[in-house]
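Is this the right way to post structure tokens for a design question? Let me know if I should format differently. Anyway, here goes:
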């Protein structure tokens, strides 16, 4: 298979995922704003087409398709809460638009010279990887939107996840020393993952698996949300302002049990699955309650990627082979999390499980550039987000596509964000 055929297959796979994801929805649900935190999903669909037109058509020298739509689908021009008031394309128009853009993008693909040394965009087919990952990111965003639907909610069919057994150890020791953080070799790595650089860490202990619903319920039931000493000043103010008493989508059932809402449907809370829909402040408060802390971003990446026996970095926690269904819960295969311990084949060299897939994991780190960072191909992908307003998440969730499952991938969000598929694990000094 040629490189161009591989690229085309990635593009088609991403588009098929988007269409399949939206297939169960009525037109009314496609255009409705289910939460002011999120766009109507029909906006996301047309936005991925507009982004593709910008980067796979116009940026490569061809004439654009419907440039008049640029202001409507510019993610920086209109806050999500205001997007329903825009003259959005309707569901059928949005589908036709993204199909037309794709046809033109594939025509351009036939004409371009991949790995053209005069074009950084085309080296390693980077611009195509960027667009593929962008669409998959919006598919995950749309799933987060659908999680906010009211009853009867979003109904899609997925196989149940594997069960497995909890890891034998509660936490693992990661040795101190220097390791390589970031990457210079991953062809589709985005600008904030670069450049590779050396980081020196002291020894530390990190949880072998993510914090589970049962673990977190102990914190809630023990009154952790009212324990002022567990929360920093900003977190305590937010907890009181938002009236937080438990993770988002949890419901108290009687005096001793919990249920949760998934896509608008109520079910018993599975005790051994990773807790999700907790903000950074909630994660940090739990860690403090356990006399632990959140790992730094560097600690997370070393535990996930470093092979101390070989003295080298792995692409994925288990090695360099691509993700499989036996190694990680990715790509909405099960439309939810799997129990901790369900993927022993995906363990890192240090013995940490589920560091890829299931839930994005909060770290203690602020989103900052690596030493020597350079924006590419545009500032608004990473650079404008650097600073104390955003915390780093790592590892991907059950809704993250395998194309972004590498151990260097960085996500970021506000410390108060809960609707994303986020959880955490704890760490402590050795």
């Amino acid at each position: 298979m040629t490189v161009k055929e591989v690229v085309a297959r990635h593009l088609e796979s991403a588009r098929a995922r988007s269409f399949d994801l939206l297939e169960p929805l009525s037109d009314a649900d496609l255009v409705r704003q289910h939460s002011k935190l999120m766009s109507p999903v029909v906006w996301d669909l047309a936005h991925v087409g507009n982004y593709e037109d910008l980067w796979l058509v116009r940026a490569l020298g061809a004439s654009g398709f419907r440039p008049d739509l640029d202001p409507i689908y510019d993610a920086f021009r209109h806050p999500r809460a205001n997007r329903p008031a825009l003259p959005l394309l309707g569901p059928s128009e949005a589908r036709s638009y993204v199909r037309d853009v794709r046809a033109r993008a594939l025509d351009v693909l036939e004409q371009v010279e991949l790995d053209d040394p005069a074009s950084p965009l085309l080296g390693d087919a980077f611009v195509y990887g960027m667009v593929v990952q962008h669409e998959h990111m919006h598919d995950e965003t749309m799933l987060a939107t659908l999680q906010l639907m009211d009853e009867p909610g979003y109904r899609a069919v997925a196989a149940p996840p594997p069960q497995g057994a909890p890891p034998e150890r509660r936490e693992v020791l990661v040795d101190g020393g220097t390791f390589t953080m970031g990457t210079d070799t991953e062809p589709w790595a985005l600008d904030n993952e670069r450049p590779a650089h050396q980081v020196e860490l002291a020894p530390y202990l990190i949880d072998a698996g993510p914090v589970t619903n049962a673990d977190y319920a102990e914190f809630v039931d023990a009154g952790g949300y009212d324990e002022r000493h567990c929360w920093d000043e900003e977190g305590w103010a937010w907890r009181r302002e938002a009236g937080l008493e438990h993770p988002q989508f949890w419901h108290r059932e009687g005096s001793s049990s919990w249920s949760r809402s998934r896509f608008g449907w109520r079910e018993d809370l599975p005790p051994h699955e990773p807790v999700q829909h907790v903000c950074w402040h909630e994660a940090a408060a739990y860690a403090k309650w356990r006399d632990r802390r959140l790992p730094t971003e560097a600690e997370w990446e070393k535990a996930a990627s470093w092979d101390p026996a070989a003295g080298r970095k792995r692409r994925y926690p288990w090695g360099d082979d691509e993700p499989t269904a036996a190694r990680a819960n990715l790509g909405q295969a099960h439309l939810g999390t799997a129990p901790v311990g369900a993927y022993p084949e995906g363990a890192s060299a240090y013995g940490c499980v589920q560091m890829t897939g299931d839930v994005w994991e909060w770290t203690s780190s602020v989103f900052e550039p690596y030493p020597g960072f350079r924006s590419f191909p545009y500032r608004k992908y990473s650079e404008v987000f650097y600073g104390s307003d955003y915390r780093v998440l790592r590892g991907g969730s059950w809704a993250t596509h395998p194309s972004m499952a590498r151990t260097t991938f960085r996500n970021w969000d506000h410390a108060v964000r809960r609707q994303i598929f986020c959880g955490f694990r704890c760490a402590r000094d050795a």
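Format looks fine. Someone answered above. Worth noting: The longest helix spans residues 126-147. The chain has nine helices and 14 strands.
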